Amino acid sequence: MTATTIRLTMAQALVKYLQAQKVDIEGDIQPLFAGVFAIFGHGNVAGLGEALYHANDSLPTYRAHNEQAMAHSAIAFAKANNRQQMMAATTSVGPGALNMVTAAALAHVNRLPVLLLPGDTFATREPDPVLQQVENWADPTITPNDCFKPVSRFFDRITRPEQLLNSLPQAMRVLTDPVECGPATIAIPQDVQTMAFDYPVHFFAEKVHRIRRPGADDTELEQALALIKAAKQPLVVAGGGLHYSQALDEFKAFVEAYQLPVGETQAGKGALPWDHPSNLGAIGVTGSSAVNTLASEADVVIAVGTRLQDFTSSSRALFKPDAKIISLNVNGYDATKHYGIPLVADAKRTLPALNDGLANWQVSSGWLEHARQQRDSWNETVSIAMTDRGTELPTDAEVIGAVNRSAGEKDIVVCAAGGLPGELHKLWRTRYDKGYHLEYGFSCMGYEIAGGLGVKMAKPDSEVFVMVGDGSYLMLNSEIATSVMLGQKLILVVLDNRGYGCINRLQQACGGAGFNNLLKDCNTVEAGAPKTDFAAHAKSLGAQAEKVGNIAELEQALERAKQSNSTYVITLDTDPLSTTESGGSWWEVAVPEVSEREQVREARKRYELAKQQQVI
């Protein structure tokens, strides 16, 4: 007689269930979970650690050096795989768990899937208070893991092993749903991990997940078509949802059918090759003058798969007050932003319907010629900005130009915070749809190196160029050692401008004096802040490394890095003040109403004037 149950610990059942989850990727059935990042402690080593040990062949466990960083790697892996494959991350209770909360918020903001499995205190409470337990005198049920609640799409705490039967399917629903996608957190008390239960065998049957593709409501589709047909000066905004929907072919067909001008968000960049005739470049605060000029004149904006954050909309000041925004988005929450006309549906399924419904519609030749002239002018600006001008301290743009020229057709750049994302959004040229990997929803310092590791694990045949400032490097660099340990080669370019150059520029733009951003403006010992030897530090973590003095030397070092079989770090000093002045648009950063500084009072006047352009 066939057994209908199997006796397992809660941790063993969790691992066995994850092994049974599969995903259909264009007809190829693959594991949904490609692995588990883990840093063990007393809260997860005996229970989940033992379970993962026996599953290592089919569900590999990767040891990391920092809990936040390993979760960043897992998130980047999912992003690079268009949310179709993902990873889990487990920590011990207390500080290990809390270190992952920042990464959970990052995944939540960017709508990226990651399964977080923080250890927790004893459900029985018998040995309380245990090591690393945070005692709440008014509520003994609260643990550090409650911090995950506001930054998780799904949260549960397992206090009985049989609770997995209901919790895990709900977690999988969130992780694989195009609307609710984000971090799922299941807190696992260390004693419950080790408790056994007779689980039904059918609970571990193979489950194949597929992308859900909801179609458009007929009325919403007709309304969108009518507005587009009436448009004289339309503009399309390409968002990250195009990648996650795998709708790039449909998007290209839609754009080419009507020669529509396109602007790309940070997440949407790569939806069209940089040299596609319709691609006018980046949009918004870090955008091209070409796109932003058309955005300020457009009567209809077709926003596809974007949540229209402030950097895209110039804090709601980029588009004309009477412009109609049609928002094609699988998420109704995003589709109704900015008084948008919602078209709540999957992009891959709906773009062909728009294409068919617009048959015989034409955009005015004058608008198309205007777009072409703007695009040509912007591309010339980009070429000049990325040219080595032989300055004493290279600019970010000159460094980006060298790295971009070194990168192959299928290579990838990774970045997240500081001034580099703005320059990269404007300047980086890629024909590869996954060639531009920026985390700019949370703009989290420290994501860069860890994220690069996750991208490399997802795209092992691509060179992964991580561009990172000295501030982010110093904040979280431990996964250099992990990349060397795992044989996942990265090429890091560290731009040392001796401080937080981006925020220093913002501080001064708001009328403030240079203060506490560049190291020279900080409280230090008389000798000043130490000059960090990033090359020596990277070598101590196992990487190959060198420092270069100019762009010509950087280009030569990049060739050596590409020939290397291991992670390679190149560092150079850069200018903290220079940035690409062309392009861009206003971004709302509140300026004090009262100040002793005349510069602040003048900045406040500019701020109040700019706010008059907002559509609120």
TrEMBL record:
<dbReference type="Pfam" id="PF02776">
    <property type="entry name" value="TPP_enzyme_N"/>
</dbReference>
<keyword id="KW-0378">Hydrolase</keyword>
<dbReference type="GO" id="GO:0003984">
    <property type="term" value="F:acetolactate synthase activity"/>
</dbReference>
<dbReference type="GO" id="GO:0000287">
    <property type="term" value="F:magnesium ion binding"/>
</dbReference>
<feature type="domain" description="Thiamine pyrophosphate enzyme N-terminal TPP-binding">
    <location>
        <begin position="36"/>
        <end position="132"/>
    </location>
</feature>
<dbReference type="InterPro" id="IPR030817">
    <property type="entry name" value="Myo_inos_IolD"/>
</dbReference>
<comment type="similarity">
    <text>Belongs to the TPP enzyme family.</text>
</comment>
<dbReference type="InterPro" id="IPR029061">
    <property type="entry name" value="THDP-binding"/>
</dbReference>
<keyword id="KW-0175">Coiled coil</keyword>
<protein>
    <submittedName>
        <fullName>3D-(3,5/4)-trihydroxycyclohexane-1,2-dione acylhydrolase (Decyclizing)</fullName>
    </submittedName>
</protein>
<feature type="domain" description="Thiamine pyrophosphate enzyme TPP-binding">
    <location>
        <begin position="418"/>
        <end position="570"/>
    </location>
</feature>
<dbReference type="GO" id="GO:0016823">
    <property type="term" value="F:hydrolase activity, acting on acid carbon-carbon bonds, in ketonic substances"/>
</dbReference>
<dbReference type="InterPro" id="IPR011766">
    <property type="entry name" value="TPP_enzyme_TPP-bd"/>
</dbReference>
<dbReference type="InterPro" id="IPR012001">
    <property type="entry name" value="Thiamin_PyroP_enz_TPP-bd_dom"/>
</dbReference>
<dbReference type="Pfam" id="PF00205">
    <property type="entry name" value="TPP_enzyme_M"/>
</dbReference>
<dbReference type="GO" id="GO:0030976">
    <property type="term" value="F:thiamine pyrophosphate binding"/>
</dbReference>
<dbReference type="InterPro" id="IPR000399">
    <property type="entry name" value="TPP-bd_CS"/>
</dbReference>
<keyword id="KW-0786">Thiamine pyrophosphate</keyword>
<dbReference type="GO" id="GO:0009099">
    <property type="term" value="P:L-valine biosynthetic process"/>
</dbReference>
<dbReference type="Pfam" id="PF02775">
    <property type="entry name" value="TPP_enzyme_C"/>
</dbReference>
<dbReference type="InterPro" id="IPR045229">
    <property type="entry name" value="TPP_enz"/>
</dbReference>
<feature type="domain" description="Thiamine pyrophosphate enzyme central">
    <location>
        <begin position="221"/>
        <end position="354"/>
    </location>
</feature>
<dbReference type="GO" id="GO:0005948">
    <property type="term" value="C:acetolactate synthase complex"/>
</dbReference>
<dbReference type="GO" id="GO:0050660">
    <property type="term" value="F:flavin adenine dinucleotide binding"/>
</dbReference>
<dbReference type="InterPro" id="IPR012000">
    <property type="entry name" value="Thiamin_PyroP_enz_cen_dom"/>
</dbReference>
<dbReference type="InterPro" id="IPR029035">
    <property type="entry name" value="DHS-like_NAD/FAD-binding_dom"/>
</dbReference>
<dbReference type="GO" id="GO:0009097">
    <property type="term" value="P:isoleucine biosynthetic process"/>
</dbReference>
<feature type="coiled-coil region">
    <location>
        <begin position="544"/>
        <end position="613"/>
    </location>
</feature>
<dbReference type="GO" id="GO:0019310">
    <property type="term" value="P:inositol catabolic process"/>
</dbReference>
